[in-house]
Structures are given as C-alpha cells and as structure tokens.
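Help! Submission page says 'invalid entity' but I think these are all valid:
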Amino acid sequence: MYTFSNKLKTFSIILMVLGFLGVGYGFMTSHKSLDEVKIILAEEHGGSHAEEDTNNVIAVDSSTEAQKADEHAKHVQHQIENRPWAALYVAAFFFMMIALGVLAFYGIQRASQAGWSPVLFRVMEGITAYLLPGALIVLAIAVASGTIGHYNLFVWMDPDVVANDKIIQNKSGFLNITGFIIRGLIFITGWSLYRYFARKFSIAQDTAEDNKNFKKAFRISAAFLVFYIYTESMMSWDWIMSVDPHWFSTLFGWYVFASMIVSGITVIALLAIFLKAKGYLEFVNDSHLHDLAKYMFGFSIFWTYLWFSQFMLIWYANIPEEVTYFVTRIEDFNLPFFGMLILNFVFPFLLLMNSDFKRVPWFIVLTGIVVLLGHYIDIFVMIMPATVGDRWFIGIPEISSVLFFAGLFLFIIFTALTKAPLLAKGNPFIKESENFHY
Amino acid sequence: MESSKVIQAIYNDDDVLMAAVKKVKAEKHHIEEIYTPFPVHGLDKAMGLAPTRLAIASFIYGCIGLIIAVLMMNYMMISDWPQNIGGKPSFSYIENMPAFVPIMFELTVFFAAHLMVITFYLRSRMWPFKKAENPDPRTTDDHFLMELAVHGNEKELENLLKETGAVEINIVDKEAH
C-alpha cells in the first residue's frame, strides 16, 4: 500500500495556495477602465508614431477617428479582462486532458487484454481519479465565463454578438449554453461511470476466485472506447474549437486526442518512475518503461502528423475563412506556435529514437517534462488567440493557474493511490506482466 | 584453398539449442555460426555477438534521403524552373516548405528502408548469385545447426555437444570462404 507522505501533501497544498493567490491576483488586476486601456495603448505606440497619428486626425473626420479608437480600446479592454479566465481554462483543461488520456489508454489496455501493462493498472487508475473533478471544473469555468463572467471565453455565448452574426446564428442549434451544459454533463457522466466501474471490477478481481470481474471490465472497456471516441471528438468541438466559432477543422477531435494520449502516457511514465524510485513499484522493470517510452515516441510523431495534416491542407487551400486561424497564430503567436513543434516533435524524436535511451529513467523524465510543457503550449495556442489575441503573455495568471491545478492534480492522484494496493494481483495477466522483458 | 575442420551439432528444438549455446559458451568455446529455420529470440545475446549497428546505418540513410529530397526539390521547384504553387510566394524554399514536407518524409523513409535492407543482405553475405553457405538443408525446415571450429580437440567437443542434447554430430572439412 502506498502512503501519501506528509512532505508531498504539504507540497501539493502549497502549490494550490500559491496558485489560488496568483489566480486571484490575475482576476483583481484584469479590470481596467477605458481610459486606463487608452493610456496603455498610447504608451505602446508612443514616440514618432504619435506624431503620425495627429497628422492623420487632421486629414480624416475627427469624430469617426475617435469612435474607432474607442472601439479598439474597448476590444483591448475585453481581451485584458479575458486573460485570467483563459489562463485558468487552459490549465484546467490541460490537467483534465491528462486524466482523460490515461483513461483512454487504460481502456485500450483492458479491451486489448494486453499482457505487459497490468503492473501499471493501479498507477493509471490513480491518475484517472482526477477526471471527474477535473472535467467538472473545466465545464464550470466554461459555463461561468458565459454567465457570471462577461463572455470571456466563448463569444457565441454573448447574445449581442450572436444577434449581429449570421454564421453563429446558423450554428446556434448546436452552440447554445443549454446544449453545451447538457452535452458536457453527458460526456462527464459516461467517462466517470466507466472509470468508477472499471476501478470497482479491478479491485474486486484482486480477491476473486474466478475471472468474472476481469471479463466484465473487458466488456465495459470495449463499450467505453466506442463512447469515448465520439464524445472526445464532440468535447473538443465544444470545449476548444468553439472559441473560434467561425472556424472549423474536421480532424480537430483527433488532433486533441493525440495531445491527450501523449500527455497521459508521459504522466504514467513519470509517475511510475517516481513511485519506483520511492520503492513502491519493484515489479515494474525497465522493459515496462521502455514500452511507455515507445508510446511517448510514437504518439509524439502521431501528434506531429495530425498537426501537419491540419496545417498543410488549410495552408495549401488558402480559403480566407479557414486560413485566418493560422494567420493569427503565425503573426501573434509565432514563438509558441512553431516552438511547440520543437518541444513536441524534434526533442522527443531525437532523444527517444535510440532503443537504449528509452530504458534510462532520467532520459524519460527529461523528455517527459519537455513533452508536457509542449502540450501545455499546444492547448495555450488553441485557446489564447480567440480570447486574448496579441495581449498574451505567460505571466502570473498563467503560471499560477498551472500551479493551482498541478497541486490539485497531485493531491487527488496521490490520495487515490493510497486507496488500493499498487499491484493488481488478481489480474489473470499479472504473472506475464511481471515477467515481461524485451 | 586452405581447409579447416569444423564440428556440426544438430538440434531439433530451439530451447535445447539455447541451453546448449549457453553451456558451450560457459566452457569458453568459440561458436562459428548457428543456422536456424527461424529467428530465435535472445540467441545473439547468448552467442555473445556484438549488438547490431544496423539502426545507426538506417538513421544515416534517412538523413541522406532527407538531404537529397531538399536539394532535389530546391533545384526542381525553386531554382531551375520556379513553380507557382497555389499562388504561394515563389523563389523561396522555406516559404513553400509545407508543400514539400510529404516528399521529404517519403524520401527519408525510402532511403532508410531500402538501403537498410540492402545493407542487411550484404552484411549477412547474401548477394546475387552467391552459393548458399548453409551446410545442411534440414536447417531450413525444422533443425538447428551449431558449428564450432576444431583445433585438435575433437573428442572433447563431441562429448560436450552430446551432453547438451545434440541429435546428430558430424565432423566435416570445410573450405574456407
């Protein structure tokens, strides 16, 4: 049995408190009056530019110019207001996505009756414990932004915007808050039910005489995977793609899935290495790590493949309504947008290519941290352009949000790990898994 | 041509063969070659063969393929006869790169795969019109053959191999290759 050390517990609570304070600070400082925004804008332009502006004012009718400036300032004011919301949402989604990715990976192991992985089942079950609270928080933030907030994430939640937008009006049969909440609750209920019963059967199997629980877990896993691939795809439209309600991509669900599964597997590997170093997982050998690292390597390439497939078709076709998505990203988010290709593709590709390196724990940890950072940026670049535009920065609101959810994530998964023995000893494949070697 | 004497032990089970290899290695004899009808997992390690460098060769071939793809397309599409690719800016490789990525990928894979296979055949001494080295046709069906060099210790080797469960032991003069 694993015991949640006090040191780690304190650490996760400190992360949460620090994060909470930072998030609070972010929200408190995000409200700027229109005049303050104008001062910020004037400071940004400044110098010789201001002189040019005054020349223009003389040339053009001064009242429309002032109106335009007002509109621009209002727009920027809204973007500044959105930043803490978006920062919180990106971090909440990122940690929820890890748990959901692990649940999908776990479902695949169960449904395929894999022989190598049962020694890691309890680690995976620990991580998936975060899914229910994590997903509810994501949904709550999304709904709150459109109800108590000022439409800070999803413009289609704003009735004023919809009234003047034919495209969103046509989509409002799908994109409306009631539908959004109902769909979200269906997704979360389905995932959590699977997680609850799979965990229950897994623990019951430990002391069972026959394989009845194992078979039941197999059956619900197969059903879950079908449910998952539909709901994951719809979830990615709802929770991510709809921040840009005019834009759509048909492989978006797969793209988010790739990010999800590679982050999930990375966290399984990191947690397994951590627990093994603490002496809790002596039955996990370096062949298991080797397999996890192979998946990290493979899914990193898979992610790149989907990233490129989405990018190239839109770049090639160059249809205005599609290509604006990448224009914003290339112009305003150049460094994170292309930088994440290095973190998510080049780095794991070169580091994990050699077979021997996949068995070296510190190599996996190093690559894993880079991959997680890269996929955080991936989510960041999905949400931020639509919410804060070029007013983005990775500062106090973003880092605090990550700290807060990291603390919560650690607290929940380590608490879940203490609830059951770390070896699923009743699994019929456990002997094969323990003796697994490459 | 110089001829050398070898002892050939034939086994009919891969597990027996593995045990035999370990025993022969433990007695510090050098195993010349083993002929098997299928790859036996872990045999290379048991024989003490150096790890393969095929992966490194394959990586280098892939890099060559990537470079060739880049140079080739830069010559064809940018410098020799500039192409207007869907209204994209011409005269620049980097700005047209997304269109070239599939070819860069394909040629990397093509070079890595084909040259690796050819390297593997050559390294295994299998080139066209080569006479088979296989000493016994049964090793292509259901038997395993272990070959050891004899340096005047025939009796000792024969006893050792018999102990390991060989079903047949032959001493043959072999032309050096």
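Support: the input was valid. A stray whitespace character was the problem, and the output above is from the cleaned input. Confidence is low (pLDDT under 50) at residues 47-55 of chain A.
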